[in-house]
Amino acid sequence: MSVYRVIDVIGTSTTSWEAAAAEAITTAGGSLHDLRVAEVTKQDVVVGEAGDLLYRTRLQLSFKYKPE
Fold first, then answer.
1. Number of domains into which the chain is organized
2. Given a cut of 80, is residue 40 above it in pLDDT?
3. pLDDT category of residue 67 using cuts at 50, 70 and 90
C-alpha cells in the first residue's frame, strides 16, 4: 500500500498557462521525489501596467509520502 501527500503550487510564465504549469512541476520536482499527479485547479492572468501578461497556473501535486 502507498500513501500520497498533496500540496498546492503556483507556476508563472510570460508565454502560456502550459509553460506556467511545467515551471511549477519542474521546480517542485527539484525538492519533492516520486511526483505522481498534477491537477490544474485554477488559471489566471495578471495584466501589468505596460499591458504585459503573466500567466499563472495553480496545481495540486501529489507525491509519495515517505515517513522519516
1. 1
2. yes
3. confident
In the block, residue with C-alpha cell 506556467: 20
Q: How far is CA 51 from CA 19, 31, 45, 64, in A?
A: 19, 34, 11, 41
* Sheet with 53-64, edge to edge strand ranges: 4-13, 53-64, 35-47
CATH number, domain with residue 20: 3.30.1660.10
3-state secondary structure 2-67: CCEEEEEEEEEECCCHHHHHHHHHHHHHCCCCCEEEEEEEEEEEEECCCCCEEEEEEEEEEEECCC
How many beta carbons lie within 10 A of that of residue 11, not counting itself? 22
